[in-house]
Inverse folding.
């Protein structure tokens, strides 16, 4: 009985906190499922501040899902440039085409979940916010708030933990208000019960917060450590010949699929081995989700075009901006000497 009351109070307090503290985000003033879905995909691995600028950029260029579906993959990747995790952009584009083919945005949880790039969290967020489906969206913010308030020490990245939190999250869900409640939890985790300096002193849940009572705020939630990130080394040659340079589109099955890059050292044939290369950058570090990259960047200016390894093409240097590139490559290109 006591636990039921606590659940009821928790939900009520979260909703009333949200009324006072909600963040005025542009996708919150619409019920357009496309606009909401776009915001959720952008925010999957991006902070709100940066994500908001990209959301505006996409909505301006592709106001409807049909516009996005009609674009080329290159256009979408170019607009996405700088956000990282490019598979999100490719999936977004494929899903847009899927939606147009199916004659409109899916309205059930299963069908939203079936879209490319949409996982359990995104499906629940879009379904509840756009269509008011009664489903709890559980992300890092929600794990943290629930683990702390209810004093749960089960690791959040285990099957058991995921199940336990999912059950609790749906018990807490106020039926008919899932969209508002899920957004309230997102904001509460982002503003109030933050990872490193939660504002417990002014928290409306302080009285019932188990972590605060037992001095475990900093210890919760518990997450099992992952294995160390793998390192990978890359080396590129930027060839300059009569105002042109050589690039290729990265193939499937590796990082940065579909994006463009200069000549990779390991593709170079011996004709290029003997030339004088100028080292511009050594060991530039770039961190991806599963890997740490270290890149060297060489420059070679030549009057005669060498034959290129398979897959590479010549492009005018001033047109390089038209090709979507990974962030690391953009950073390397900043070190290039000016054209004479
Ligand atoms: S009291 Fe502190 S730890 Fe507990 S819910 Fe509030 S902000 Fe989070």
């Amino acid at each position: 009985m006591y636990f039921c009351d606590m659940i009821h109070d928790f939900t009520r307090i979260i909703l009333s906190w949200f009324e006072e503290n909600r963040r005025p985000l542009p996708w919150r003033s619409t019920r357009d499922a496309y606009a909401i879905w776009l915001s959720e995909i952008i925010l999957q691995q991006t902070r709100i501040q940066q994500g908001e600028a990209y959301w505006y950029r996409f909505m301006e260029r592709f106001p409807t899902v049909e516009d996005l579906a009609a674009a080329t993959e290159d256009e979408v990747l170019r607009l996405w440039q700088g956000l990282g995790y490019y598979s999100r952009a490719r999936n977004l584009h494929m899903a847009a085409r899927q939606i147009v083919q199916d004659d409109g945005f899916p309205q059930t949880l299963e069908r939203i979940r079936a879209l490319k790039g949409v996982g359990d969290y995104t499906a629940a967020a879009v379904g509840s916010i756009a269509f008011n489906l009664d489903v709890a969206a559980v992300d890092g913010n929600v794990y943290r708030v629930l683990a702390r308030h209810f004093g749960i020490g089960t690791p959040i990245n285990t099957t058991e933990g995921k199940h336990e939190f999912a059950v609790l999250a749906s018990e807490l869900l106020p039926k008919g208000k899932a969209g508002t409640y899920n957004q309230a939890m997102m904001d509460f985790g982002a503003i109030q019960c933050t990872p490193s300096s939660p504002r417990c002193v002014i928290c409306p849940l302080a009285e019932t917060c188990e972590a605060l009572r037992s001095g475990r705020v900093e210890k919760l939630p518990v997450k099992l450590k992952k294995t160390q990130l793998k390192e990978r080394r890359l080396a590129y040659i930027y060839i300059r010949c009569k105002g042109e340079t050589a690039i290729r589109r990265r193939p499937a099955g590796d990082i940065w699929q579909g994006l463009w890059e200069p000549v990779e050292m390991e593709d170079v044939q011996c004709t290029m081995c003997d030339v004088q290369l100028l080292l511009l950058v050594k060991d530039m570090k770039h961190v991806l989700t599963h890997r740490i990259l270290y890149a060297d960047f060489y420059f070679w200016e030549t009057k005669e075009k060498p034959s290129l390894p398979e897959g590479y093409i010549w492009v005018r240097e001033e047109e390089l901006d038209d090709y979507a590139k990974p962030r690391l490559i953009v950073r390397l290109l900043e070190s290039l000497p000016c054209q004479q």
